[in-house]
């Protein structure tokens, strides 16, 4: 019988000596018998240098720009070839409400705007639904970086396709009266006051009118069509007139037309008010007569009292 001491003392050729030990934690971890400590020690060699600055990327899960460029280009090409599945998905990027959970971030949306600007020559009338989706997106209340990209996109679009100029102007002029407070309160964006929103509208108009000289003639056709109706609120009329007066400060060639438009519409409102007052007086008179006719005249005194009341 060979003792344990004799066994451990037996010589072995170099490299063939077994790595045996009676201590359990010298070769295996405490977690189990399946993982050697050598593998654990290799894992523990990975360490962070405390002197290295570690920063978390804000948009780590955002699509890279080159991928978005390919996505936009392929969607437009497929749409022009007859397959609009990817094209419809691209439109949803701009039509989704900013408050929805799947809404793209401002950074992501800015990349799509840049990708569209790189393919602006493809945005013909066959892509008008996509262009309208971009024009109707929530752009006015976003940060300055996005605003700059969007403004350049509008300039490129209007320069490459003159047919879109009037559509762009209509949407900008519509902000003269229709500008809800929610426009400047977008998720994860700084609050933008209404005065700032209107200033951005006029900045965009000024940029387009200087970039495309013929746009002022288109604008003269848009302004009357967007003027509030006589039945609209007083606030809407005041807001529109105030913005028209700001407009002619940087578009002096439209000054006479704008002032004539304001005068014409105010005269119409005054005439309509007079007609409404006459109608109201007539209705009140008819109602008094009807009320008197419905009252039974019991005697002469009642009749005389009725005459006095009518007088």
UniProtKB/TrEMBL annotation:
Specify the superkingdom: Eukaryota
What spans are recorded as compositionally biased (Acidic residues)?
302-311
Question: What is an example of a Pfam family matching this protein?
Answer: RRN3
Q: Where is this region: Disordered?
A: 1-43, 287-311
Q: Which family does it belong to?
A: Belongs to the RRN3 family.
Protein name (record):
DNA independent RNA polymerase I transcription factor
């Amino acid at each position: 019988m060979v003792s344990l001491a004799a066994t451990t003392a037996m010589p072995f050729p170099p490299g063939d000596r077994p790595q045996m030990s009676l201590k359990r934690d010298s070769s295996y971890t405490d977690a189990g018998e399946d993982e050697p400590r050598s593998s654990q020690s290799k894992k523990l060699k990975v360490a962070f240098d405390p002197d290295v600055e570690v920063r978390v990327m804000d948009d780590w899960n955002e699509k890279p720009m080159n991928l978005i460029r390919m996505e936009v280009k392929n969607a437009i090409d497929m749409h022009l070839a007859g397959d609009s599945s990817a094209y419809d998905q691209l439109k949803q990027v701009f039509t989704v409400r900013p408050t929805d959970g799947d809404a793209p971030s401002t950074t992501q949306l800015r990349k799509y705007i840049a990708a569209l600007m790189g393919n602006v020559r493809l945005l013909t009338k066959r892509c008008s639904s996509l262009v309208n989706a971009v024009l109707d997106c929530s752009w006015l209340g976003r940060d300055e970086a996005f605003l700059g990209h969007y403004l350049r996109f509008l300039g490129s679009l209007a320069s490459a396709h003159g047919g879109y100029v009037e559509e762009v102007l209509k949407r900008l002029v519509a902000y003269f009266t229709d500008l809800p407070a929610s426009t400047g309160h977008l998720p994860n964006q700084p609050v933008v006051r209404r005065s700032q929103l209107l200033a951005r509208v006029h900045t965009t108009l000024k940029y387009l009118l200087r970039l495309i000289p013929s746009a002022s003639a288109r604008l003269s056709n848009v302004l009357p069509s967007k003027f509030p109706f006589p039945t609209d609120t007083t606030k809407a009329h005041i807001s529109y007139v105030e913005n028209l007066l700001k407009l002619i400060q940087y578009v002096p060639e439209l000054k006479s037309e704008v002032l004539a438009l304001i005068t014409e519409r105010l005269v119409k409102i005054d005439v309509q008010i007079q007609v409404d007052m006459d109608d109201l007086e007539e209705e009140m008179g008819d109602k008094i007569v009807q009320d008197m006719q419905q009252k039974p005249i019991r005697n002469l005194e009642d009749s005389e009292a009725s005459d006095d009341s009518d007088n």
